[in-house]
Amino acid sequence: MLFVLSRLGYYLAGVRFDARPILHYYQFVDPQLLKHRLIESMYYLHVQPPGLNLYTGIALKLFPQSYPIALHIAHLVLGLTICWLIFYLMRVLGVSRWIAFALAAWFTVSPGVVLFENYMLYEYIVSFLLVAAAASLWRYSAANSLPWLLLFCVLLLALVLFRNFFHLIYVVAILAALVYLFKGRRQRVLLAGALPVLVVLGLYTKNWILFGSFSGSTWLGMNMDTITAHQLTSREARDFVNRGVISPVSLLDLGSPIALYRPYIRMPARTGIPVLDECVTSTGATNFNCRAFFQVQAAYTRDGLTLLRNYPIVYLRSLQAAWFTYFLPAGDFPFFDLNRPRIRAIDRFWNVVFFGQFKDASDRKELRRLEDQGARGSLALHTGVFLMIGLPALWIWSVTYLVRGVRRKTLDRPSAILVGFLLFNIAYLTAVANLLSSFENNRYRFPFDAFYVVLLGLALECLRRRYGTATAASGLVATTFPLPSNRSTT
Fold first, then answer.
1. The model's pTM
2. What average pLDDT does range 417-435 have in this prediction?
3. CA distance 366 to 345
4. Cα–Cα distance for residue pair 50/41, rounded to 1 Å
5. What is the mean pLDDT of residues 292-302?
6. How far apart are CA 356 and CA 469, in angstroms?
């Protein structure tokens, strides 16, 4: 009921589903190709994994005129499920009913969550896949039921197919951990895990044969510009180009139209495959899947490696920007230009009170100006101060809680595996996002914000048990979610 009422309230405030990215963002294949040449386009898609475009293409085919409504309904269903699963994960970890309810409700009605729910991109789908995978893993650990293991492996596969953050290494690391943890079920784990591994290997092999890249995405070459040349000042960039250290390509902003790159590249011969030949989509957007951009990627990669060797300070600047944006509130994202202005008062209240963002950070150019003027100390007030302190502290506390619980045998096996899965994902995705990107890291953090909420519930429950009333929550958990008889209720 709270979910429904909050969505109705936000709708009355003017929030609407933003499907514009499908028409203009590089992450999406030309909508006309998704409608009429979907399978071919998915096969030759290399700039990212095919999941998002396959999902979008099916929606465009089934609802060619009303696809924004269909996708909005799908996101609402995902949102309600995320809400339930956050509550469920806290309850199975022994968090009291009211703490779990309050945190799940707080997360669900927060402006940042609503803004992502009404934004057509990866993040909301990935958030659902992560919490669903966590719940499936706990169910398998607690009940030893094969369907839950299969569902977990399917969800891992979906993560890899939707987002290039989730690499083959990610899948193999998790499966290796499960093989170690479930020594008596190794054969079952290996057989179930063969599905995602074989499919991912097939995708990587296809890209290797067709495009020379054994990966799910060839975007890393373009991303090299983000963490190197893009961190140069205008004077530094011109000086390096004039001295021949880097190419003039690095003076162009990442995402520039192909016409600006033409003086520095040779247009390849046409293949007859539109998703590889057409560098501009039917909506006027740049198609970075076009084969001509391989030469642009190569130039950015060469220049980036040169800067890393000869002027590594650019990467330090990238890391600084990455951590700054990582701790921004979820709703403070410049591309929420459709909906954020309509709930700006609510969003600012939320960001100040709950996240400690005492100064607005919407104007990123103004932040650059402040940094150039040396006002770095005051810049901290533009990010989420409470997040900057609380998220690392919460992660470290959770690691300590897990280690002590395992050593002292006060934490049952399913709960330990679940907490370990949450911590691993937070660490892995934080590292990937902050090492390889700079400017949208709060967007990259959002999919696992739900995991932080679950860990916060666990921390509050420990405080309640230590300093609050002596009423134990374990009996409630055992009543609501029946567990194996050998589960410790300590």
1. 0.92
2. 97
3. 21
4. 9
5. 93
6. 30
